[in-house]
Design brief:
Keywords: Cell membrane, Membrane, Transmembrane, Transmembrane helix. Helix content is 77%, strand content 0%. The chain is an all-alpha fold and 286 residues long. It is elongated.
């Protein structure tokens, strides 16, 4: 009797496993019938997600917080809290610079969208569409109107003041070319001039201005490289000090003369980078 207990236990375990598998097969069949045949795991397939609750946490790390990471590494190497303080002060400045760069990229994308809008409207007009219909379809494809898209499209479809709506949309960064589109629209409506020909000339002018800006940026690439080299000179000096067997971080952060040199050098470095960047940015203006 005692020797038969393991056999009974094995039978019971097998029956329990069969019931579980049959239940999984029934659940899979129900999902296929009522969930539209989505992604359903195979019958009897084990998945750890069924037994372990998973909490998905999405953490968005901003790039400016990397200043604290670099400052933390430098603080460990220098055994001082001053790099952490400097890194904390650099976080808002880096965030401001990154946001300005993102706004500049968004401005360029909007300017390219306005150029594409002019070409698309001219093409729709030549295809036989009326001006309001051409603007409606072209604006939906290019996305050049931004937050004022609904107002401009409503004016185009229902006979509103399209030039005024375009001028309001031109207030956004990079959308100043819409002022020319509004002027072409006003001239075509009031004077009966050809809107497609005016849009072609406007598109050519906007493209020429964009190409001129890109050529100027390419010519100033060397100047920006010089600014970046000036920013890296202190790091090169520290590396040379380590290569010569000195301990520049200990001198800079743990001696009075080093702290004075660090303060004066950091101030001069910041002023030099600001002045060089200002000169180069002034050269980028058309």
């Amino acid at each position: 009797m005692v020797t038969g207990q393991p056999m009974y236990a094995a039978v019971c375990a097998g029956a329990a496993a069969w019931l579980v598998l049959d239940r999984e097969r029934g659940l899979r069949r129900a999902r296929l019938l009522f969930a539209g045949g989505g992604d359903v795991p195979a019958a009897g397939a084990w998945s750890w997600r069924r037994w372990v609750p998973v909490a998905r946490v999405r953490v968005r790390v901003r790039r400016e917080w990397l200043c604290l990471v670099v400052a933390g590494v430098l603080a460990v190497l220098a055994t001082s809290v001053l790099p952490l303080v400097a890194g904390a002060c650099a976080v808002p400045l880096a965030g401001r610079w990154l946001r300005a760069a993102e706004r500049a990229r968004a401005r360029e994308r909007r300017a390219d969208a306005v150029i594409a809008l002019c070409g698309a409207v001219a093409g729709e007009l030549r295809a036989g569409w009326q001006p309001g219909q051409a603007l409606f379809w072209a604006a939906r494809d290019t996305g050049a109107l931004g937050g004022e898209e609904a107002a401009v499209l409503a004016a185009a479809r229902f006979g509103g003041d399209v030039p005024e709506a375009l001028r309001r949309a031109a207030r956004e960064d990079g959308a100043d070319g819409l002022v020319g589109l509004a002027a072409c629209w006003r001239v075509a409506v009031d004077g009966g001039a050809g809107l497609a020909a005016g849009l072609d000339r406007l598109e050519a002018a906007l493209r020429e201005r964009r190409d001129q800006r890109e050529r100027l940026r390419a010519q100033l690439a060397g100047a920006w490289a010089t600014v970046g080299l000036l920013a890296l000179l202190p790091v090169v000096a520290l590396a040379m000090g380590w290569a010569l067997g000195a301990d520049p971080l200990r001198v800079l952060f743990h001696t009075p003369a080093g702290l004075c040199c660090l303060a004066v050098g950091g101030l001069l470095e910041g002023m030099g980078l600001w002045w060089a960047g200002r000169v180069v940015r002034a050269g980028e203006e058309p």
